[in-house]
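INFO batch 0412 | record 1 of 1 | parsing
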Amino acid sequence: MFQYHCLNPISEKGLALFTEKYRKIDSMENADAILVRSAKMTEMQIPESVAAIARAGAGVNNIPIQECSEKGIVVFNTPGANANGVKELVLAGMLLASRDIVGGIEWVERQKDVPDIGKLAEKKKKEFAGCEISGKKLGIIGLGAIGAQVANAAVHLGMDVYGYDPYISIEAAWNLSRSIRHIESLDEIYAECDYITVHVPLLDSTRKMINKEAIEKMKDGVVILNFARDLLVDEEALVESLQKGKIKKYVTDFANPIVAGAPNTLVTPHLGASTEEAEENCAFMAAKELREFLENGRIRNSVNFPDCDMGTCVAVGRLAITHKNIPNMIRQFTQILGSENLNIADMTNKSKGGYAYTLIDLENAASKKALDELRAIEGVSRIRVIC
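INFO prediction complete | emitting tokens
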């Protein structure tokens, strides 16, 4: 029986994937796995029983990744599960920024008691007029799951799309429209595009990438959209450029004191993935990842350990070992198992950065003595007997 705990409300569509072999418990204590959305785990004490954490979403800033890696806890996320919801909000942001739709709505609300509001609106409407997005140039920085969907949708809306992503995956590249221009320099996007939307992870290399120098290279009247992470933008420099009229509009999904109420900003309260469908997709994907890991040792979409899959466990004994990516580990594993007359039927070893993962199928179940000796190896963080 596997036990799991939800730190946030998780869609029942995802939880329904757990079979009778799983039990939902009310606290993290004795849990084998944790499902989380926004709860700040960096301030929590994670029990030793926890072997996996699944984030129902893409960002994992709320999870102590380094601590989990040291403890052999595999951390999953759900890339692409909420991509359509975010894509639709990005498109809405471009449309709202192209015309003063919000200002027009607010004006009508203020005139609700005017008897001849219809005639007054006809006179006033030119103050809220704007432009169409068809025929405009859109620059997309980052062509992952969300960026690629935004790019394809923008093409169908008649936009001239420029895409920048030096690390684009083969899968993402195949899914992109042929009409998208692949740009090798951010400077070209800055110089050419009427709209620029950012879809990259927050790393040291991307922190405040949209800064004063980048803004100075952009066209006058550019619209910047940020539905990825607020720290990708130097928002103090951005607000200054808004005040000067260099930037026409800033559309962001991240409310903070800098941008809330700033001129020519449209700020939504982190609504990107807040759709029923996105929450269901994320929950389903997270639950599936946990099941495959707990039942078969499979890793897919982990942020701290490598993808690894040896299929459904049909062996007498399968061992899943999380360990540091250092020399001589495999030799030590096989030496201990050989000394116990345990024959290896199949084995795979994968690494990711400083950490590695090994799956071993045995023809006989490993003894407690063998497992204790494996756990005692320096650099081994966790051993699970899968079947």
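INFO post-check: The chain has a mean pLDDT of 95.
INFO record closed
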